[in-house]
Amino acid sequence: MQISPPKHLASYIKHYIFLENSENDIMRLRLFTDGNTGLILSGNINLQDLSGNSLPLSFFYGQLTQYKDLVTNGSFSLMAVVFQPYFLNILLKISAKEVQNQIVSVEDVLKNEMQVFQEKLFYNVDPELIINDLNIYFTTFLSKIINSDYELIKATQQYILQNKGIVTSKELEHFTGYSERQVERKFQQYIGLSPKKYSNIARLHYFLSLMKTNTEESITKLSYHAGYADQSHLIKEFNNNIGLTPNQYSKTENKLAVNFIELHSK
């Protein structure tokens, strides 16, 4: 289940995703970058990394520069709040670069503020009611004054997305009125990635959207439409960000979200 936020929150929250698994089996999952950060809320998930380290029940995740493999054991329900790239910086009040590739326990930074949502997930409250309550929570939080830099970052992010990730540093300088170095510093502070890295992710996800809607087209033709110079460049981006080839990704049966997939055990 994927639900969009109300209009006044859309600049900060991309969407909510509710996922549940009723089977008492082991699932191997892979999360890879989509250029956004987010919040995972759960009341009962047993989630571990491949080293066997248990993750918190609820956590924030920063920008990913490499895919992350996770393992669940048993049934679970969770709510993913997918943020716009700069919203984690607003919530945590720290540089987004500091939490790049990091998982931050919700309890460590917000104490018990999210406990009520965890309990509702544990007791199987209607997900839409939980999302309504989350909308109220975030609306109250955002009633505070927001740094004016966020408007610039938001506009620049949208400019990159509208151009499907195909923008030059000179074009960004012209759009923002800032030097390349200044734009990069602001992106690292508020989004946690360089403009170039974020643009590459935007182009990769545009290609993924083409794959979804043009199933009869060849990978070569779709890579050209997405602005890749050649197929080898695309495959390199896939391997770096997803750890799979385009064909392997397309054959993945259980896509919990576009960037959250179940892997079959080898």
Please, could you describe this protein's structure?
This protein has 2 domains: 9-141, Jelly Rolls (Sandwich); 149-242, Arc Repressor Mutant, subunit A (Orthogonal Bundle), CATH 1.10.10. A hairpin with a 2-residue loop joins strand 10 (255-257) and strand 11 (260-263). The protein starts with a strand and ends with a strand. It has 266 residues and is of the alpha+beta class. It is globular and about 50 Å long. The chain is 41% helix and 20% strand. The longest helix has 19 residues, at 195-213.
Residue share in helix:
40-55%
| Largest sheet strand order | 1-2-8-4-6-9
- Work out the helix count: 11
Could you say how many structural domains there are in total?
Answer: 2
- Write down the CATH class of the largest domain: Mainly Beta
The computed structural class is alpha+beta
- Rounded to an integer, what's the Rg over CA atoms? 19 Å
Q: What is the CATH-assigned architecture of the largest domain?
A: Sandwich
Total beta strand runs: 11
Quaternary state, please? single chain
Query: What pattern of helices and strands is seen along the backbone?
Result: EEEEEEEEHEHHHHHHHHHHEE
Spatial shape: globular
Low-confidence stretches are none
- Largest beta-sheet characterization: 6 strands, antiparallel
Mean pLDDT: 90
Distance between the termini: 29 Å
Pfam family, one: DUF6597
Protein name: AraC-type DNA-binding protein
Organism: Chryseobacterium polytrichastri
InterPro entries: AraC_XylS_family_regulators, DUF6597, Homeodomain-like_sf, HTH_AraC
